[in-house]
Amino acid sequence: MIKHVAVLFALSAAISTTSAAEPVRQLASSTGSSEPTTRVIVKYKTGVAVSLSNQGPGGAGVFEVAQSDSEAFAEQMMNRPEVEDVAVDVIARNPPLPQAPAGHPMVNSAGFLPTGAPSDPGFNQQRSWLEPTYTSLGYQDILNAYLTTMRERSIRVGVLDSGFHPVADLDWSEGYNLSVIGAGVYNPDFYENTWAPNCTSPHGNAVAGIIGAKANNGVGIAGVTDAELVAARVLECDSGSLYDASIGIRWLAGDPTIEGVPAISEPVQIMNASLGAQIDYCPFYVQEAINYAHERGILVIVAAGNENIDASLVAPANCENVITVGSVNMQGDGSGFSNFGSAVDITALGEMVGSLSVTDVTSQWYGTSFAAPIVAGISALMMQANPALDSEQVANTLVSTARSQVNPTKGLGVIADAGRALGTVNAQLNANRPDVRLALNSVSRCNEQAYLLNEPAGMDFRAAYEVSAGNIFRNAATERFAVFKTNSEGVKELVKLSDEDTFILNGVDIENDQVWFDVCDENALNCRFGQSLPI
Fold this sequence. Notes:
With 535 residues, the protein is an alpha/beta fold. It has helices at 70-78, 142-147, 192-195, 203-212, 242-252, 284-295, 368-385, 391-400, 418-430, 448-453, and strands at residues 5-7, 25-28, 34-44, 61-66, 83-88, 91-93, 155-161, 172-177, 227-233, 235-236, 239-241, 270-273, 277-278, 299-303, 314-315, 323-328, 346-349, 353-355, 363-365, 414-415, 435-438, 465-468, 480-486, 492-498, 502-505, 515-520, 533-534. The strands form 7 sheets. Strands 8-9-7-12-14-16-17-20 form an 8-stranded parallel β-sheet, with helices on both faces. Strands 1, 2, 3, 4 and 5 form a 5-stranded mixed β-sheet that branches. The chain is globular.
């Protein structure tokens, strides 16, 4: 459980480190006055007795120290025999928003509605949805991917941010305020109007809208995917603590050991963090939180930052087990503001990105903060298309299907392409679809009359199908081939469960019914494709 201990040391010597901490709150001293404080996070060695401990998630000790003493306290703790690592908490912020170039207004109603596009009034500003052309190589071709995806289930996507305001176009499945507002008193109300009524930043709304704004509802924009959005407020109006961000990562991943916060109802599958701190290493408490999520199969996507520096100088962009996203312009060149370097894994459109504000009115945004949720949305589409994909497969497919930049002068990564990514996913799905034909068309049943004259009770060979799934690998002997049918109430019901790779299917009309194939356990549960592979 997280506990906070106030520790005030009057140490004479200040010890400098690579990155000095900034104060994150005010702590009352014994004299009644207040002074800036920060937190020191201590990692203890495994199996060593701890004499001065204050356990937080992952077994770390969390100490609140006068800001003037934090570095010295960290040095003292590092010299203790039971301590493995020490890190001082640092300020984290949303990346600074770049100024719109001349002639590129932040709000613009120009655009058009391509065939099959969602009808939302702000869609004409969602340029990343369009198919890339010679003059618009920075687009992500999201619409083609969107139209070819069977969105049978919602993907749970966590948004680590601030600037959340209630709007009609965003439905939140759940959320929590995990920032230090209110002296660390956490609260399920994550909206700005409660904890920071003067905060007009809509950063969280803009990020979440790109991922999962409701489509075809007559307001706002269309999210890339049908998402169950989960808000993890870890900043106080664009600024906060990197340690709080790590707690938000753990909460979204289902860590039940965070004191004062009920465990999330269900861990997310993807999380987006459009925030960072200028620090040239990944603090252990952040890396361990990311590892906690990664080990549970959660894809962690982070913005590279907007300082026009090497992304290795920004956390969590420089952490392991994340997808770090840089920004390109409409032409497909690296944005002048985008952080760059080998830490950047992939890029997406980060200029003139249409999304939400404090209302459902669409605005245009600039920054890697808004390139990252495009990649998060594409990742969710891939998981919707094939629920059997794990986070590593999604990440690898994102990068392997991306396009090269025209002039990769900044050392930024390749450009995400949703059309290519979903094309690859759908090709993989096709390889897992069985061969289906009318049973009487099988060469093994060339004597049709014999079968028709000897039909078992309840069998109609004229309407029966032969399903051949010999090309589909079963991971365990207990797995079965299953066929489901969507009934008149829209519920999928089991039609056939077979341990043979060739079997007869009766009671469905492949041409007119909604029929689904899957590989499940012996109870037709725990299905590989979530009962969502149509045949």
